[in-house]
Amino acid sequence: MCGIVGVTGVGDALPYLLQGLQKLEYRGYDSAGVYLSDASGKDALIKEKGRVSKLAEKAIAETKGFKGTAGIAHTRWATHGNVTVENAHPQKSADNRFFLVHNGVIENYKELTDTYLQGVHFVSETDTEVAVQLVDKFSKDGMATPDAFRKMISLLDGNSAYGFLLVDHEDPETLYVAKKKSPLLVGVSDHGNAVTSDAAAMIDLTKDFIELRDGDIAIVKPKSVTIYDEAGEQVNREPFTLEIDPEDTDKGAYPYYMLKEIDEQAVVARNIAGHYYDDEGNLQGIAPEITDAIKKADRLYIVAAGTSYHAGLIGKRYFEQWAKIPTEVHIASEFAYDQPMLSDKPFFIFLSQSGETADSREVLDNVKKQGFPALTLANVMNSTLTREADFALPVLAGPEIAVASTKAYTAQVLVQAILASALGNPGFDLKAELAKVAVEIQAITDEKESFKKIAESALKNQHSAFYIGRGLDAAVALEAALKLKEISYIQTEGFAAGELKHGTISLIEDGTPVFALLTQKKTAGLLRGEVAQVAARGANTIVFASESLAKDGDAYVLPEVNELLMPLLAVIPAQLIAYYATLDRGLDVDRPRNLAKSVTVQ
Ligand code: F6R
Fold it and tell me: For ligand 1, is residue 353 a contact (CB within 6 Å)?
C-alpha cells in the first residue's frame, strides 16, 4: 500500500513527481503530498486529501515561480490515523529539517515514542511521523544524517516491512532510501536519478533501474547512487533495463483502465500461449526443476488472496484432474495464522498479481521456515513473492492498473492450466483450445453493448445481487460477485447454487438480480431448477449459458470451448457488467473507495 516516488538532479521535479504519483495511485489514494527543494535550500511542502489530481492543482498553484530540482512524493492508503492533510505524507520533523515518505507499518512506533521521543510535539497520528522525529533526534544528538537514518531503521521492529525516502533540508538534493519487503527501485539516468515503488511511475525519466534488496540503504544524489547492504557494506548492484512500452501503462483512448484491461484479455491469452509453447506446439518456459519438484509432492497447496484466490479455485481442478495431484486452495490471511494439517510432502503455489501481497508473504515466510518448496505465479516478476519462493513463473498479463483485477485473473487461470498440462495429460490439445479461448474472449468483449444494457436494466437502483453456479461456475460466481461489489458497492454474494435453499434464499425479494452461470453439463439441470426456485420467489434471473446448454430466455449465450476452460469465458460478462453498473452509478471504476491495488499490509 502507498506509493513513493522521488527525484533529484532533474531540471523541474514537480511534473515528474505528479506524473509518478498518478501512476502509483493504484497503491492508495486517500491523500497525497509532495516536498520540493532546490540546491539553494528553497523548499515547499504541499499535501491534500483525496486524489492526486487535487494535489496537482494545489501544488501547481502554490509553487508558481519556484522550480524544485529534487523532491519526494507519496500517495497514501491510510493505516495509522484518519484521512487528513496532517496525516498525509511527507511527514516532517518538528524543526522542519527532515521530510519523509513511508510505505509500510512501524509495529513498535509506540515503544519508540516512549523510549526516545518524550516531550516531542506530534502533529499527526501516523507511525511515519515517529520515524522522521527519530532521525531528527539522532541528528540533534550529533549523528550525521546517514547514521541517524540508519539508526532509526535499526530500531524498527523486526517484522516491520518498510520503504522510506528521506530528505534533509540542509543537503536538499540528496535522497536517503531504505527498503525491506516493500518494493523500491532506484532509477538512474544522466539527467537525474529517481526512487520509486514501481518502475512504471518513472519511465518518463528513465528505463534503467536498480532493484534494492531487503535491508538495503541507498544514498541517491543527482549524479551518483551509493548502496549499502543490510550489514552496512557498500555494494554494487547492476541496473536492469525495463522492457516496457510507455503505452502499456497509459489508458490510450479508453475512459478507464478497467475497460482497457478487460479488452486486453484476448491478447494476453495469445501472449501466454506464445510464451509457454514453441512453434511446434511443445511446452517451453517451465524449467524441469519445477515440474520435478511438484511431481515429488503428495499434495499441492495453493495460497492467495481475493481474485487470485478465486483463480486458484479454478486451477485446483486442473492440478487434480490432469496432474492427478490432490490440491487445496487457501486464503493467505487465514493460512498464515491457522496452518492446517499438512500432508507429508506438500508443495506450495502462491498466486499473485502484484507479488507483494503481505498476507501471502507471511505464509511464504512460514513455509520456508518449515523447509517446504514453493513456486510463485505472479504478474509482477522480480516482486517479493517471486524472489523469495524457490521457483517463479510469469503470469504475463502486462501492467494491470485498475484496482479491480481482470486480466490477471484470466492469466492466472491460463498459466495454471498450462502448468498442470506439463504435469499430466489434459486429454485434449490444450494449445489449440487456448487459441480458441482467445478468439472467443475477443468475441465476448466485442459485445459490450449487450452487457451495458443488462447492467443498466438489472442493477439500476438495486442494493444487492447474487451470482450463482455449480462446480467451476460456483468458483467463477465468487469472482463475478467480488468484481461487482468492489467497484459498484452493490452488495453481491457469489454462491454455490445448491446452498441457496439452506438459508440464503430468504434474501430473495421482488426484483433481486440473480445472475446464473451455466457452463457445466453435469449440473446444468440442477442449476436450471435453482434458477426456477429463485424466479418463483420474485428474483430477476439473468442466465449466461454456454451454447450447448442454452435455452430460450437466457440473457447471453456463451461460445463453447472445452468445459474445463469455460471459466475463462464465463468471467468476461461479469467483468463487463461490473464495469457498466459502476459507470451507470457515476462512480470511479478504476479507484473504488477504501481499496488499493497492492495490499502490502496484513
Ligand atoms: C480484486 C483484487 C484483489 C487482489 C488481492 C490479491 O479485484 O484485485 O482481491 O486479487 O488483493 O492481490 P495479488 O493478486 O496482488 O496478490
Answer: yes
Asked if residues 353 and 405 have their Cβ atoms less than 8 Å apart, the reply is: yes
- Closest protein CA for atom 16 of ligand 1: 352
Instruction: Kindly state the cell numbers that stand for 537.
Output: 420467489
Minimum-distance ligand 1 atom for the alpha carbon of 309: 10
Does pLDDT of 112 surpass 70? Answer: yes
For ligand 1, whether the C-beta of 306 sits within 6 Å is yes
Report the candidate in 495, 488, 514, 513 with the shortest Cα–Cα distance to residue 584: 488
* Residue found under cell 540542509: 170
On the question of pLDDT at 246 being above 70, the answer is no
Matching CATH topology for 3-246 and 447-588? no
Sign, CA torsion 556/557/560/565: positive
Q: Does domain 251-445 have CATH number 3.30.70.1070?
A: no
For residue 301, the 8-state DSSP code is E
Concatenate the DSSP letters of all residues of 548-587 into one string.
Answer: GG--TT-SEEEP---GGGTHHHHHHHHHHHHHHHHHHTT-
The alpha carbons of the chain give a radius of gyration, in whole angstroms, of: 25
Fold of 3-246: Glutamine Phosphoribosylpyrophosphate, subunit 1, domain 1 (3.60.20)
The predicted model gives 404-409 an average pLDDT of 98
Report the nearest atom of ligand 1 relative to the CA of 408. 14
What's the CATH class of domain 447-588?
alpha beta
Q: How far is the CA of 397 from the centre of ligand 1 (A)?
A: 14
Quote the CA–CA distance of 396 and 349 in Å, as a whole number: 17
Indicate which residue's Cα is closest to atom 10 of ligand 1: 307
Strands 240-241 and 175-180: unpaired
- What is the structure's pLDDT at 542? 98
**CB of 308 shorter than 6 A to ligand 1:** yes
Using alpha carbons, select from 200, 201, 196, 159 the residue that is nearest to residue 180.
159
Determine if ligand 1 sits within 6 Å of the CB of residue 305.
yes
What's the CA-to-centroid distance between 405 and ligand 1, angstroms? Answer: 6
Q: Could you give the CA distance from residue 556 to residue 433 in angstroms, rounded to a whole number?
A: 22
Backbone angles phi, psi at 468, to 5 degrees: -125, 155
* Minimum mean pLDDT range among 102-106, 186-190, 456-460: 102-106
Per residue in 27-79, pLDDT (tens digit) is 888 899 999 999 888 999 999 999 999 999 999 999 998 999 999 999 998 88
Entry field: residues in the chain? 602
Ligand 1 mean position to 31 CA, how many Å? 21
Query: Does the structure show a pLDDT above 90 at 245?
Result: no
The angle at the Cα of 329, spanning 439 to 395, to the nearest 5 degrees, equals 40
CA atoms within 13 A on the CB side of 291: 15
Domain segments of the chain: what residues? Answer: 3-246, 251-445, 447-588
CA pair distance 18, 14, nearest whole angstrom: 6
Atom 3 in ligand 1: which residue has the minimum CA distance? Answer: 306
pLDDT tens by residue, 512-566 = 999 999 999 999 999 999 999 999 999 999 999 999 999 999 999 999 999 999 9
> For the residues 174-186, what does the mean pLDDT come to?
92
| Ligand 1 within 6 A of CB of 182 | no
